[in-house]
Amino acid sequence: MAVWRTRVGIVGAGPAGLLLGRLLELAGIDSVIVEHRSRDYVEKRVRAGLLEQGTVELLRDAGVADRLDRLAAVHTGFELRFVDEAVRLPFADLSGRAVWMYGQAEVVKDLIAARLGKAPLHFEARDVTVTDPENPVLRFELDGERVEVRCDVVVGCDGYHGVTRPSLPTSTVRTYRHTYPFAWLGVLVDAPPAIKELVYACHERGFSLYSMRSPEVSRLYLQVDPTDTLADWPDDRVWEELHTRLATGLGHELTEGPIIERGITAMRSFVSEPMGHHNVFLAGDAAHIVPPTAAKGLNLAMSDVRVLAEALADWFTKGDRSGLDGYTRTCLRRVWRAEEFSDWMTGLLHRFPDEQNMQFRFREARLRYLAGSQAAMTSFSENYVGSAAA
Ligand code: APR
Ligand code: PHB
Asked: How many CA atoms are closer than 13 Å to the CA of 219, on its beta-carbon side?
C-alpha cells in the first residue's frame, strides 16, 4: 500500500473540485484530487451552461478563462413566452450584470488542462472512502494498488451521490429535501441556434427552454414526467413537443438537427447543514442541489470553493481558522437565496400534475406581472444574475 501526504484531499473532479485545486495551487497549497470516473467521461458530461458574471470573474482571476473569453457568448436578456405573449427581459440593463453561455464540460476541460502534469489529479480511482473527520484520511485503489492519503483537510466535491457527505456522523448534519413532480429532458442538437437569446416558455403542456452552447450547437429542454425514460422520447416526439411548447403565435424559429446527446434529470432541492464537520468540508452539489431552472448549480459550486479556498489559505498561512469556522454560514446565505429563487422560478414556469385551472391562471397572472412591471423584472434580474442581497 502507498501512503501519501497532502494538505487538502479533494474528492471529485467536477467544476467544484477542479476549481478548488486551482485556487489552492495559486495560493501555494498542495492538494490531491481523486475522481472515480475517467477523464474522457468528465470532459464529455453534458450539464448546465450558464455562467454568472461573478463565476466568470473568478475563472479569470484563476487564469483559466482564455478559451471562455474567446468562445462564450455574452447574454444581456432572454425571452419569456407564455400564452400569447413573448416579452424580452433585459436582465443586464436592470441589474448591471450579464451572463455567459459556456458549457460546464468546457469549464471542466479548461481546469483539467491547467492542472494535469503540474499537480496530482487521479482519474478512475476505485472504492474511494473518507474516514476520521478530525484527522481525515482518503483511501482508494489506483491501477490495482491501494493508496492512503493523509490530509489536513478533506473537501467533498463529489456531488449529490458522493461518499464524503455520508462519511460525516449523521447526528451532526441536518438535511432539507424536496423532490418536484416532474423532470427535464435535455437534448443537445447539432444545429445553429435560430435565435441569439434564451427562450423560457411556459405552456399549458409544460415548460420548455431554448438554450445554446455555441454558434453551431443548440441545447433544448422539455418538462417531462419524472417516470419517463429516454425510450418514451423518440426524436419525432421531442421535436413535435418543442414546436408546440415554444410556439407563441409569433412564429416558430426552431431549427431542427441531429440530436447528439440526451438525458433526463430529476428535479430536486437539497441542502445539508452544516457544510462540513471538523476538517472535512463539502462544496457544490455534495452540499446542496437546486432544480436546474435558474442555472444556479454550477455558480453556487464555484462560489463555495472561492470562500473555502480563501478560508484554507488563512488557516494554512496565518493559522487563522475563523474563515473555516464561518464557511457554512457564509455560503449558506447565498445558497438559501438561490434555493428559494430556483424553487420560485420552477413553480412559476412548470405545469404541476395536480394543478387546477385556477392555479394555472394564477401562474399566468404572476407571469403577466413579471413581464409588465419594472420593479418585478428588476427583482427577478438581481436573482437571475446572482447579485441579489442574501
Ligand atoms: N469518488 C470520487 N469521485 C466521485 C465520487 C466518488 N465516490 N462520487 C462522485 N464523484 C465525482 C463525480 O464523478 C463528479 O466528477 O465527483 C464529481 C462531482 O462533480 P459534479 O457532480 O459536477 O458536482 P460539482 O463539482 O459540485 O458541480 C456542480 O454540477 O451537477 C452539476 O448542476 C450542477 O452545475 C452544477 C455542478
Ligand atoms: C442550459 O443551457 O443548460 C441552461 C440555461 C439556462 C437555464 C438552465 C439551463 O436556466
From this structure: 19
Q: Which residues surround ligand 2 with Cβ inside 6 Å?
A: 48-50, 198, 211, 219, 292-295
Q: Give the number of the ligand closest to the Cα of residue 20.
A: 1
Task: State if pTM tops 0.85.
Answer: yes
pLDDT at 195 over 90: no
Query: 210, 221, 327, 384: which one is catalytic?
Result: 384
- DSSP for 232-249, please give it: G--HHHHHHHHHHHH--S
Does the annotation count 180 as an active-site position? no
Three-state secondary-structure class, residue 359: helix
Residue from 75, 109, 277, 288 carrying the catalytic annotation:
75
pLDDT digits (tens, 9 = 90+) for 48-62: 899 999 999 999 999
The rounded Å distance from CA 17 to ligand 1 centre is 8
Say yes or no: CB of residue 18 within 6 Å of ligand 1. no
Which of 51-55, 83-87, 296-300 is predicted least confidently? 83-87
With cut-offs at 50, 70 and 90, classify the pLDDT of residue 252: low
The Cα 127–Cα 144 span in angstroms is 11
Of all ligands present, the nearest one to the C-alpha of 263 is: 2
Tell me whether residue 384 is one of the annotated catalytic residues: yes
Closest-lying ligand 2 atom to the alpha carbon of residue 292: 8
Q: 2-53+103-177+268-345, what's its fold?
A: FAD/NAD(P)-binding domain (3.50.50)
* Active site annotation includes 122: no
Region of residue 78 (phi > 0: left; psi between -120 and 50: alpha; otherwise: beta)? beta
Identify the H or E element spanning 298: helix 297-318
Which ligand 2 atom minimizes the distance to the CA of 50? 5
> Cα separation of 291 and 311, whole Å?
28
Query: 296 C-alpha vs ligand 2 centroid, how far in Å?
Result: 9
| Residue 170 DSSP one-character state | G
pLDDT (tens digit, 9 = 90+) per residue, 207-250?
A: 999 999 999 999 999 999 999 999 999 999 999 999 999 986 55
pLDDT digits 0-9 by tens, 258-290: 999 999 999 999 999 999 999 999 999 999 999
> Which residue's CA is the closest to the ligand 2 atom numbered 6?
295
Indicate whether 342 pLDDT > 80. Answer: yes
Task: Report domain extents, the chain.
Answer: 2-53+103-177+268-345
Please answer whether residues 175 and 256 qualify as being in contact, where contact means their C-beta atoms are separated by less than 8 angstroms.
no
What is the DSSP secondary structure assignment for residue 216, as one 8-state letter?
A: S
